[in-house]
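Reopening: structure tokens for the adenosine-5'-triphosphate complex, inputs below.
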Amino acid sequence: MPVLNLSNIGYRWPGPSPFALAVPELLVAEGETVLLLGESGSGKSTLLSLICGTILPDRGHVHIAGVDVTGLSGGARDKFRAEQIGVIFQQFNLLPFGSVTDNILLPLRFAPKRRSRIADPLAEATTLCISLGLPKDIIHAKASTLSVGQQQRVAVARALIGHPPLIVADEPTSALDATSQAAFLDLLFAQADAHQTALLMVSHDPRLGERFDRVIRMDDIAQIERAAV
Ligand SMILES: Nc1ncnc2c1ncn2[C@@H]1O[C@H](COP(=O)(O)OP(=O)(O)OP(=O)(O)O)[C@@H](O)[C@H]1O
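Re-run output (same inputs, fresh job):
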């Protein structure tokens, strides 16, 4: 069973936005790493929001791990997302006044099954920090005191904790130089590999492609429409 299965999706942003997106099919297999390339404004973030269930398609279905998230109520969808998907946002979205552990453990609060997959969340958060190259004593630091590179690692630890079957990442390397980008991807792939986690990463940088099982382009999987205003 694919971990992600989009079929016949259609979505138009409400209000004055002229942008509409159609995705006939997108499948990601268990443990598969996929790079989704597309230029700015091609609808990559919109597609990720549809996958995460933060917006609902006007038509079509999004199945995550076999469950049709489009059929769930708002609250159930939020809980399901927390259980099944680790999300790494472009801006990391850490709670600035929370500690590193507060941030890493956050998804577990809303996801009892994900929580139950690990015996000791605090120990797991510490282990993740260390394996991601963060100093051990950083776990008590406030997120706002971290460097960008450290924030990025915390965002990865937060996505990985409790081994969700799918990690979705929106341009997580865009703020990094080439060396840091490569190191960041090494860490992300090693962690995903260890737990058969599927990874769907969005970027506009085709050079990242060689590291992934599969590279797809927005142009190949989606039709977009920008009506005249
Ligand atoms: N919150 C929103 N409300 C209304 N329209 C939106 C919203 N977010 C995006 N759009 C519309 O969707 C289009 C595609 O935006 P989207 O962010 O999905 O593209 P992208 O490929 O992720 O771009 P980028 O690489 O610059 O992040 C935008 O040009 C805009 O018209």
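Residues 178-194 form the longest helix (17 residues). The domain at 31-44+71-216 is CATH 3.40.50.300 (Rossmann fold). Marking as resolved unless the reporter disagrees.
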